[in-house]
C-alpha cells in the first residue's frame, strides 16, 4: 500500500482528497498545524471511509519537526502539498506571513524529499497565476501575469521554486495543479468548507446567509464587462478536484509520465457569474439568499474560466458534477454544521 503525506490534510481540499485517497487504498499521513482547520475533521474522514488517517500537528515551516516526521513514517511514497494560507485580502495586510508560510514550507519539503528518498510531489497552485487572461477559456500556455496579491505571488514563486529545484535534481518529479474555484462538500455532508470567522469566499458566505448566520450577502460589483455585470468564475466540485489529486499521485507513482514536471488546469470549462450562482442556489435549495450589490472588491479579476482539455485528455479526468448538485452539497453541509452546533 502506498503511503501519501498530505500536508494541510484537515483543510477543505486536503480533507476531501484524503477521503478519495483512502477509498483508492492509499495510506494517508496528514500533517497540519490546525491554523485554519479543526481536528474534528478527522472524525468526518473516519465516518466516511472507516479509516482514521495518521495525524501530526506540525507546522511545515518547522524544518526539524518535518524531518522527524519523515523519520517516523518511513517510506512515504509521495507528497500532496496543500498546506498554505489562502486569503487574498489577509495576504495584502500580512505579506511576510504569506511569504514565510507558503514558501518556507515548500522549500522545507523540497529539501527533505531527497533526504528521505521521496521522489514525487503534487503541488496546489491556483488560476490566480493567470491574473486576468487575455484569452478565455484559459489554457496552461497562457502567460503568467503580474501577481495581484502576495498570496497570488506565493503561488507563482512556488511554481518557480519547483521548476528550479527539479532542474537541479533529476530524481524528483512533480505535478502542479492549478485550481479554479472549488466549492461544495462531500455527499455525506460529514466534511466540507469550514472557514474561520467571516468567510472571504463566495460559497460559504452564500450558505451562511441562507442559514441566517449572516444578514445579507454583498455582491462585489455589477458593472463588469460580463453578461449580467457580476464577475465570472469556474466553480468546480471539491470532490472532483480531490479525485484529480488521486489520479496525479497514481500517475507519478506508476510512472505513467516521463515528464519531470507537468502543469494542469483543474476546472469545469464553464464560467458562471456571481448572480447565476446565487440564483441557482436559491432554485435548487428553495431557500432565499438576501443580497445587495456593493462596489467592486479590489484585486478581483473580471472573468476567468478554464480550458480543462489538457487534464481531460492527459489525466483522463473531467469535472463530472453539475453545479446544481454541487450547490446542494454545500447547503447540506451547512445544514449539518448547524445541526451539530445545536447539539453542542
Ligand atoms: C480567490 C483568489 C484565488 C484563490 C482563492 C482562494 C483571486 C483573483 N482569486 O478566488 O486565487 O485561490 O480566492 O480562496 O485572487 N464574491 C462576492 N461576495 C462575497 C464573496 C465573493 O460577490 O462575499 C465574489 C467575488 O467578487 C468573486 C466571486 O464571488 O467574483 C468568487 O470569489 P471568491 O470565492 O473569493 O474566489 P476568487 O476571488 O475567485
Q: Would you give an account of this structure?
A:
The strands form four sheets. Strands 3-2-1-4-5-6-11 form a seven-stranded parallel sheet, with helices on both faces. A two-stranded parallel sheet has the order 7-10. The chain has a two-stranded parallel ribbon with strand order 8-13. The chain has helices at 12-23, 41-49, 63-72, 88-93, 95-115, 150-167, 202-210, 238-253, 274-285, 309-315, 323-343, and strands spanning 3-7, 27-32, 54-57, 78-81, 120-126, 173-179, 181-183, 217-220, 232-233, 235-237, 261-266, 272-273, 291-294. It folds into two domains: 3-183 and 235-266, NAD(P)-binding Rossmann-like Domain (Rossmann fold, 3-Layer(aba) Sandwich), CATH 3.40.50.720; 202-232 and 270-304 and 321-343, UDP-galactose 4-epimerase, domain 1 (Alpha-Beta Complex). The chain contains eleven helices and 13 strands. With 344 residues, the chain is α/β, with parallel strands linked by helices. The chain is globular, with a radius of gyration of 19 Å. Uridine-diphosphate-N-acetylglucosamine binds next to helix 7 and strand 8.
Task: For the structure shown, list the relevant keywords.
alpha/beta, Rossmann fold, UDP-galactose 4-epimerase, domain 1, seven-stranded parallel beta sheet, two-stranded parallel sheet, 41% helix
